[in-house]
Design goal:
This protein is an alpha/beta fold and 305 residues long. The chain has two domains: 185 residues, HUPs (Rossmann fold), CATH 3.40.50; 77 residues, Uridine Diphospho-n-acetylenolpyruvylglucosamine Reductase, domain 3 (2-Layer Sandwich). The protein is built from ten helices and nine strands. The strands form two sheets. Strands 3-2-1-4-5 form a five-stranded parallel beta sheet, with helices on both faces. It has a four-stranded antiparallel beta sheet with strand order 6-9-8-7. β8 and β9 form a beta hairpin.
Length: 305
């Protein structure tokens, strides 16, 4: 597989998230070769976030900075000082806040990450363990200003590319800590699944891919329904009432996402769906400390506080 030829980016400026591991160092090398600096209208800024979880994490920053210099690319970094007890979720949140801050500051089109097919499968398994809805089966995809051009590439191909091209990278020691659920899935569940039944494992991979396609089709239909609404902040109550309940919850969830609510609990979506169908006129429902909805006679309004 010629990975370089699979990369497709629109002209513009992108922030490339590089940790110093094999995946992101490979991504950076592929991007530079796919879009040579003097021959392309695609430009890159290399961004590195030091979580401050490991005492030696500054070595990763030095490696990435040196490599960016060799490619003659701008380099930015930030030290998080999160501490060794930081959760996966907190580390991810801090990292993406930094990346989007760099995106805004540089006027970039988007952020490019090195997530690959193994990450996609692991994330789907993790989300299933947490009781995910349909979105959790295909959460690692391009969207929201984040580009994942390697999401279809198995990690073994990235490692082979790195070795063949003489790339240097650092292995993160926390990747061996199975107190992190992702490491447990990566090092225990997935290998056992492959060893027990390779056919069943690849059936799971196929299921995840089909769910991604199904989600795309569902999202198009939801977008069409929302496009007919009075405004992005308004939803006609009759439209929610006339849909089958499960379909109505999907419409309400997508409406909330389009109004900036990315972290949605099933409880909140169910409660709001029922309220849209049954709540009295001129009543309100507080969603969180930042937003609420107001119920009119014929429509519900999303309001930022």
């Amino acid at each position: 597989m010629d990975i370089i030829k699979t990369i497709r980016l629109e002209p513009g400026h992108y922030v490339v998230a590089v940790s110093g591991g094999v995946d992101s160092m490979t991504l950076l090398d592929i991007l530079v070769k796919r879009y040579p600096r003097k021959e392309s209208d695609v430009r890159f800024t290399v961004a590195h976030f030091d979580h401050g979880i490991r005492d030696v994490s500054h070595i990763d920053r030095q490696l990435v900075q040196e490599r960016a210099g060799q490619y003659k690319l701008p380099f930015v970094f930030e030290e998080g000082n999160l501490g060794s007890n930081t959760s996966e979720a907190a580390a991810r949140k801090a990292r993406y806040e930094f990346l989007h801050k760099v995106k805004t500051h540089t006027g970039a089109r988007g952020v490019i990450t090195a997530h690959h097919l193994d990450d996609v499968i692991e994330t789907a398994i993790l989300n299933m363990m947490r009781g995910t809805g349909r979105k959790g089966m295909s959460s690692l995809k391009t969207g929201g200003g984040v580009y994942r051009p390697l999401a279809h590439i198995p990690k073994k191909h990235l490692r082979s590319y790195a070795q063949a091209n003489g790339l240097v990278w650092h292995e993160d020691s926390t990747n061996n800590d199975q107190s992190y659920k992702r490491n447990f899935v990566r090092q225990t569940l997935v290998p056992k699944a492959k060893a027990t039944s390779t056919d069943d494992y690849y059936k799971l991979v196929g299921l995840i891919r089909r769910q991604r396609e199904l989600n795309h089709a569902i999202d198009i239909q939801l977008e069409t329904l929302l496009h007919t609404q009075p405004s992005r902040q308004s939803l006609r109550r009759i439209d929610v009432a006339m849909l089958p309940y499960k379909v109505a919850t999907e419409l309400v969830a997508e409406w909330l996402r389009q109004n900036g609510k990315r972290q949605l609990s099933r409880w909140l979506v169910d409660r709001l769906t029922v309220a849209i169908r049954t709540a009295h006129t001129d009543t309100e429902l507080l969603l969180d400390s930042y937003s609420k909805v107001r119920f009119g006679k014929t429509r519900v309004e999303f309001i930022n506080l």
